Amino acid sequence: MYSDGADHVSDFTEKGPWLIDHPEERARMGEFCRKRIEQELGWEYSVQNLLAAYQRVFTKVRGMRIQEAQGSNAVIASRPIEQVVRAESHEHVK
């Protein structure tokens, strides 16, 4: 369910009761959303985009005089993102 106008509160206030009165549409929308999450938006589909975004950030950081960074930031910025994510996730498991 999306808002059509600038006044989102009023728009959703009107659409909410409509959904209550239309159980078939509610079920159809719920099924559509469930399938979309399972087939397009779940973590297994998002992880590559997230890693690519981190890689772009770290690539920019590398170009910004990494040698002046201090502590763990210099170490992290000089490693490929997959190594950073892997190392971070292992630290949380301990």
The stretches of 5 or more residues where confidence is low (pLDDT under 50) are none
Radius of gyration: 22 Å
Which bin fits the share of residues in helices? over 70%
The helix-strand sequence is HHHHH
Shape: elongated
Mean pLDDT: 76
Indicate how many domains the architecture comprises. 2
**Structural class of the secondary structure composition?**
mainly alpha
User: From the structure provided, what is the oligomeric state, counting identical versus distinct chains?
Assistant: single chain
Note the main sheet: none
Total E-strand runs: 0
**N-to-C span:** 42 Å
> Number of helical segments?
5
**Percent of residues in β-strands:** under 5%
Characterise this structure.
The protein has 94 residues and is mainly alpha-helical. It folds into two domains: 8-41; 46-93, no CATH class. It is built from five helices and no strands. It is elongated and about 55 Å long. The mean pLDDT is 76.
